[in-house]
Amino acid sequence: MKRDPIVAPAVLLVWGAVALFILYPLGRLLVLTFWNGGPSLDAVRGLVGDWTHRAALINSLLLAALVGVAGTALGLAFALLAVRANLPRWVGRVLDAVVLLPLISPPFTAAIALIFALGPRGLISYHVFGLTRVNIYGLWGTLLSETLTYFPIAYLTLKAVLANVDANLEDSAFSLGARRWRVFRTITLRLTTPGLANAFLLVSAASLADFATPLILGGTKFPVLPTQAFLQITGLYDMRGGAALCFLLLVPALAIFAGQRWFTERRGGSFVTVTGKVGAATRVKTLSPAAVAALAVACGLVMALVLVCYLLIFAASIVRALGADNSLSLAHYAHVFSGGLKAVRDTLVIAVICMPVGGLFAVVLGFLVSRTQFPGRRTLEFVSMMNYAMPGTIVGIAYLVAFNDAPLALTGTAFILVVCYVFRYSLAGTRATSAVLAQIDPSIEEASASLGARRDLTFRRVVLPLVRPALLAGMTVLFIRAMTAISATIFLVSLDWSLVTVRILEGITNLELGQASAFSVVVILLVYLAVAVASLTMRRLNAGSLGQAGTLLGG
Amino acid sequence: MRNGCVAVGVALLLVAGLAGPATAETLNVYTAWPESLSQPIFKAYTAKTGVQVNFIRLSTGELVARATAEKNNPRADVIWGAPGDGFAAAKEAGILEPYRPPTWDRLATELKDREAYYTAVAKNTLVFMSNAKLLKEKGLKPPASWNDLLDPAYKGQIQTADARTSGTALTRILSIYYAFGRDEDKAFDYQKKLHGNVQVYTKSGGGCTIPAALGQAIVCIAHLPDAMEAKKKGYDMLVTFPKEGVAAVIEGVALVKGAKNRELATKFIDWTFSRDMQDLLDKNQVYMLPTLPGASVEPSVQSLMKEAKLLTVDLDWVGKNRRRLVERWVNEVIKE
Asked: Do B263 and B116 share a structural domain?
């Protein structure tokens, strides 16, 4: 199993790609920051207001941890409801559709929608509850907004993992006389450990990299590192100081990575639930009707909040000027389909290319780090999450520094955008693959090998179908991010490639709330379409294969 | 799967090929002005000369960061329409080339960099914009002095830009500094008091416009074009100026060092300082004041500006002191 001729080249290829597109740009930026005719710390000396940066480091860690825990918990609640509550199929579909919404949220729109819902004159806070002194700026507002934005990543990961927890195992526990809560704790939750750990990693790292939410909702009392770095670069024109702050972000990123490993290892043991032997499927009954009802209420409330925010966006898109002239109008959509069509098309082309490329990369990487042994495996795991955990601004600048001139002049092409997205946003697919693989008995692959199949054939015919839900989750996240990413994009978008997010940002800065909202609605519809097509295609490709893959949209 | 990989590879190559470098007679511009303001001006130039203007719109800070990172292989020829402090930073980063348009001598001294690294296209003023409905609800008059904003009725009802953002916040800090007779300590005492009434400092210059328009705050302190844009959309906003005066900052233009289309770029800059372009500011309702003497200013803007006492800003002093002022703001005004 270990001496397989295909593994070494695959590892080399992945390492090469990661070195070129993650380590090399960050390395160039590191040199630019800390090298001034010799090693130098003068980049750090220029940082304004030390107390804000000290507070920012602590706040970033705190926020990432809180968002990680809250996002994972919320994701788990939704995933349980979706695959463990025996609800009718349409409920699952509604859940999927609504849960994806906040993840799609194009830049700034979610935070702005939240202000309109919960601000001093918010729809919910003022018009429903009559509160006038609400303060959503600070830790709580940021935490709420980021949790709502990123819990769908946890949901997608956990759904793939939970679907693989064999109900027969729970059944055996029941027949041995265990009570519900005990079964849930010792079987269901325990077997979900790899999923929980990876979901936490994904959600908290996404929070670390997010500067847009705290930019709008953080206020001055709650500085976080990515926002500080952004301000240092864009407000004080201090690229080196900003870069230095971003490198500081690697400390909490490493802490999250270590925390995730510690959690998985502490709970130790085997998480295998998918073996070659599939018993008769039994009805899941871990959750009591009362528990299902409680989950449904909790998830229902969250969904209601999400829906209010998005209804506000939808409302803004179909009236002339929200709040000033509320007469119905399709003018904003007319704008999207005339002046904005090129942006929609360009974005779609890039996102559609990213999806399979990034999906494949994610699965191969996830497979290599969890199924094979090679030196530097842990390092590769951490390096692969670096671009994900860094604010987009810095990733964009690093790419610009590295790829703007010979030998690798890639700027101005769509290629650089694709590469940037693939190496920044494949992480969700990678981690979901790892989580699902931890549940799959390696003896299935061994059986394939002993029947004479080479490793690549096994990978294609056995592993890929088994990790299909993870692959789909990864591709969904990647597609959404490719459609909506802005912070890195703004540095890489060329004169020939205009992107939807740039137009949305344009709309926001230009007070064209209606146009920004119309673009957002179009993006949301396109994402639903893409996810539906992807899951149908995969079902078609893998028809009749192993695994109990629940698909994303519509089970 | 392998076929899939090949197809994807081919698609990638195709896409990479499609996005080749721009052809001749195309000028590449970075601008911080919103598309609605900049594009009509670029289109007018294309209509006049046949030269295509390709532009990317970025926030000022992103613009400078991008141009700096591209230093060794510049992608833009001209930086057009960004606040003066951005140009000061770009000059310091060594990415600009000095250039004097033919009308250089006719422009006032405070409108150009002494060494001609950048020149003012237009002047941009600070205003108070207030939500008319909320003012009425609280029985308040629109603020007409910096001190009016200290009224407890405004507690948690004022939004304005964070000092660490570019442009707008700097204009505010300078306005207050000049309004208090260039006494920095007094100016900071005032800002500390104002801080008590501020709901949030937004991280983009015009970021308070929509919240104020929709009633999340009563007053937004921002630039005139933001306010006029809101009024144009139909939001009931009142525009007032503090009687002590407001600073007018410059919106500049500069030639990028090592520009690939240098000649096209200089011609475009020349045109920027012709009556032809300077009149467009007015005609297109940009709500910034032209810098070329004699260019037209619409009567409504003229009458609006009559209420405003414009304070002249010393560019050199700003360049030397900006960072220190921001640092002081962070350490004295917002520190608890």
From this structure: yes
Task: Using CB atoms within 10 Å of the CB of residue A118, give its burial: 0 to 12 exposed, 13 to 18 middle, 19+ buried.
Answer: buried
| Cis peptide leading into residue B211 (ω within 30°) | no
| Contact residues on chain A for B1, CB-CB shorter than 8 A | 360, 460, 464
Residues of B in contact with A230 (CB under 8 A): 203
* Amino acid type, A36: N
Interface test with B, best of A26, A48, A348 (most B CBs within 10 A): A48
Distance from the B210 Cα atom to the nearest Cα atom in chain A, whole angstroms = 7
Domain count, chain B: 2
Distance of CA A252 to the CA centre of its chain: 18
Task: Report yes or no on B276 lying in a domain.
Answer: yes
Say how many residues make up chain A: 555
The CATH number for B256's domain is 3.40.190.10
Q: Does A142 touch chain B (CB under 8 A)?
A: no
Domain positions in chain A: 7-270+299-541
- φ, ψ of residue A448 to 5 degrees: the values are -60, -40
Looking at the domain that runs over A7-270+299-541, which CATH code has it been given? 1.10.3720.10
Q: Are residues B65 and B96 in the same domain?
A: yes
When scoring A115, A133, A227, A234 by the number of chain B Cβ atoms within 10 A, the one with the most, hence best to mutate, is A234
Contact criterion met (CB < 8 Å) for A231 and B164: yes
Chain B neighbors of A216, CB-CB under 8 A: 202-203, 207
From the list A48, A215, A464, which residue is nearest B330 (CB)? A48
Interface membership of A227 toward B (CB under 8 Å) = yes
Q: Does A30 touch chain B (CB under 8 A)?
A: no
Task: Name every chain A residue with its beta carbon within 8 A of the beta carbon of B84.
Answer: none
B 231-250: CB under 8 A from A? 233-236
Q: Do B39 and B187 sit in the same domain of this protein?
A: no
Instruction: Look up the domain containing B59 and give its range.
Output: 25-123+249-297
Spatial distance between the Cα atoms of B332 and B227, rounded to a whole number of angstroms? 29
Chain A / chain B CB contacts < 8 angstroms:
194
Shared domain check, B139 and B224? yes
For residue B319, being part of any structural domain is answered with: yes
Q: Name chain A contacts of B336, Cβ cutoff 8 Å.
A: 221
pLDDT string in tens for chain A (555-residue length): 445 677 888 899 999 999 999 999 999 888 888 887 777 777 777 676 677 888 888 899 999 999 999 999 999 999 999 888 888 888 888 888 888 888 887 666 777 777 778 877 777 877 777 777 777 788 888 999 899 889 998 998 898 888 888 778 888 888 888 888 888 888 888 888 888 998 999 899 989 888 888 888 887 788 888 888 888 888 888 888 888 888 888 888 888 888 888 888 877 777 887 776 655 566 667 778 888 899 999 999 999 988 888 888 888 889 888 777 788 888 889 888 887 788 888 889 999 999 999 999 999 999 999 888 888 888 998 899 888 888 888 898 899 889 988 778 888 788 888 999 999 999 989 988 988 888 888 888 888 888 888 878 888 888 888 888 888 888 888 998 888 887 788 888 876 777 888 778 777 766 677 888 888 888 889 888 888 888 888 777 665 443 443 333 333
